[in-house]
Amino acid sequence: MKLLLLSQLRDLRRHWIVSICVVAGMALAVIGVVVVHVVSVQAVRTIGESGLRNSYQFVVPVPDSNEQNYFEIRKLWRNGGIPGIDGLIPVVEGSVTANGRLVRVLGFDLLADLKVNREADFALVDPQLLSANALVAMGENFEVGQAIEGARVVAHTASASDILIADLPTAQRLLGRPNQIDSIWLRRASITHIAFLEEILPGLLTGLGYRSPKLEVDGFDIQDMSNWNPTHSFAGSIAFNLSLLGALTVLVASLIAYEASLSNVRRRALETSRLLSLGASSGQIKLVFLLEALLLALAGSLLGTVAAFLSLRGLNFFDASTDLRVFLVGVSKAVGVGVLAFLGAAYIANSHSQERPYIVLRWLLIALSLGVLVYGLAPGSGLVGAFLVVVAFCLFQVLVVVPLLVAFFRRFEPQASFKKLVRSLFLRLAARQFRLFQVPLNAFSIAIGTAIGIGLMVSSFRTNFEDLLDQLIRPGLHLENAGEVDIAEVAGWRGVVDVRPYYRGIGQLAAGPVSIRAARLDSWEATRYGYDQPVSQGALVNQQLATRHGLSIGSVMEMQLPGGIQQTFPILHVFNSYGRNDSVAIIDAAEIDPKDWVRDRITLRVTDENKTSITKKLNDLYPDVQVSDNAEIRSAALRIFDRTFVLTNAIAVVAVIVAVVGILSSSIALHERHKHDYRLLRTIGFSERDLTFSTVFQSGVFAIVSCAGSVPLGIAIAWALCNLVNPRAFQWTIDLQLHASPLIVPIALSLLAAMLACVIPYVIRRYSAN
């Protein structure tokens, strides 16, 4: 056994470049998985609305707002009538004006469920909050000691959105709703394995479409919290999407490990047969190969962990707010999965030769991929089904497209009949290269296809988003915190063509809250949302609201408006609202009583020559009002959009780099295998120029055909992302558009990288020979 280990170490030292390629592949995979894990956890923490709301799984709406409903359901719970529930609280919600803007208020009984209060992410157990007129403020626009409607902020915490937390009586006073509640939240008994899965794989439950088991209690409409807390599902979808993208790097790295192990087995076939004749067992030899794979995987894991830590620090993702536990969990996940994948790849490579036929298995896998495709296309398969469609496309690429490419070029091997012997020989060598490079070709085509698919999706999304901005953000000035602006006075200023106030409030449907906007819905306003005629009665709703509540054009929506008024609205139009995760309804301002709403936003249509003077006049008269040019808002929105997809594109690039490393490793092994052939070619008169041309020719053919074969996969992945993944994850519909840039850029870079990866081993061999 000792001699076997020494032999293996000697081989590693002799072929150190291949070993470095395998280690680099593992390191890049670890970087991808760890960075994605940390970013996913932060997304769930920051986008998720609040630790308190996320602690509850069910909601009981109280349509009549009668506080007595809470005492009835609490009595039923105490008598064992609601099994599986550990706690419940009464909740009142609404909005008040603070700092010149509309702010949500969330009030509940602090003493009703002390266990959650102790575990919440903010200081709800501050004794001051139990006193009258005390608030906990979430968001960036508050400070401790600030007075809001007669209440005082006693604690403050950072949050993605502004929310005021209060004891139930204080919230009822702020909202002018004594003895009223909107809902009762129920907390399910903790399920340990679900919490563990979410810690290891953020967003997994969202991706699988998991919902808490339905509760049915006579006399009460108990609903799932997802419609009332869409931010949690939104964050989970982001985490799930990123996690699967990180898994791509592990898949590509595993294929590299398999190809390296396979090349190792072929290269050492003669030595292995000698060892067997000397008495070594096949099990011992296989164990040594597995130990080599383990050593390389651990080396890559260590390098990747250090690089991931430095990357997170450099990207400002690893700071005081990031728990070290999150990083260690990500590292453990990456190393565990990576090592198992490497060992599995090495075991398979040592158990079978490449020449062994797999016709039956291939057809079984093709049938499986077709079954997965059919299942994933079914609407009920959810987000995981959408990604299974992507997996099916990748399987089809590996099982059908790549073998067809290899078979096509294999035909040239015996049939090439060019007049010049050199060209004929080089074409045959290129055909042989395809056959021997089939595994790295699979990895390369999947990585490029994914990069193309993501690029096309982002490009199409950006075009749709630009069209939406052009439609939604018309030329003019936008005023925030404009509650004190005198509309009649401003309308008389020189250069002001139109003044359009907007009202906001929180409404209630039977299955959850709705953000309502009220405006003068004439033709100009309605076309901002894609509707081509004025609206007098009815509502325009976004895709999120329509999807969550099962509504469509022509449906009737019964909604409670601010102030407690119940009103019915027919759905006239469903519009896109990219970037939002809440339910939004737009109604005509003539339908509302302004005293129950907040009017803090105004749009001014102005002439271009007077825009500067009007802006200055507004700033002088109303210093607290934020005045923005709509053109600047559009540019800022596009900048935010571009930043949003930086990480997604970066992970796709990492996968391509890993695949190129695999090609480099295979190319080195191939040159090592054919070094005697090159020596023979020199002997019979081939010059170094001929051999250089041979290498460049083979590399070019390999790179061109590989990239061309990846284009259909990329388009298929883009289609799945636009029409399945995004609608199911975020309720966003994206029109796929085949722009040139997302196709040309990754293909050009991949062509260059693949050719370099194929040429580098030849350069190294020439340098070593000299």
Write up what this structure looks like.
The protein is of the alpha+beta class. It is 58% helix and 15% strand. β5 and β6 form a beta hairpin. It starts with a helix and ends with a helix.
The Rg value, from CA coordinates, equals 32 Å
Number of helices: 25
Overall spatial form: elongated
Residue ranges: pLDDT <50 for 5 or more in a row?
117-124, 353-357, 415-419
Which structural class is indicated by helix and strand composition? alpha+beta
Fill in the keyword field for this structure.
single chain, 770 residues, alpha+beta, 9-stranded mixed β-sheet, 18 strands, 15% strand
Short description:
The protein is an alpha+beta fold. It is 58% helix and 15% strand. A 9-stranded mixed beta sheet has the order 5-6-4-7-3-2-8-1-9. It has a 9-stranded mixed beta sheet with strand order 14-15-13-16-12-11-17-10-18.
SSE blueprint and pairings:
Layout: H1 2-14, H2 16-47, E1 58-61, H3 68-78, E2 85-98, E3 101-108, H4 114-119, E4 134-138, E5 147-148, E6 151-157, E7 163-167, H5 168-175, E8 183-188, H6 192-200, H7 204-207, E9 223-224, H8 230-267, H9 269-277, H10 282-314, H11 324-351, H12 359-377, H13 382-410, H14 412-415, H15 421-436, H16 438-472, E10 477-480, H17 487-491, E11 496-509, E12 512-519, H18 523-526, E13 539-542, H19 543-549, E14 556-560, E15 566-575, E16 584-588, E17 598-606, H20 611-621, E18 626-629, H21 630-644, H22 646-673, H23 675-683, H24 688-730, H25 741-769
Parallel strand pairs: 3-7, 4-6, 12-16, 13-15
Antiparallel strand pairs: 1-8, 1-9, 2-3, 2-8, 4-7, 5-6, 10-17, 10-18, 11-12, 11-17, 13-16, 14-15
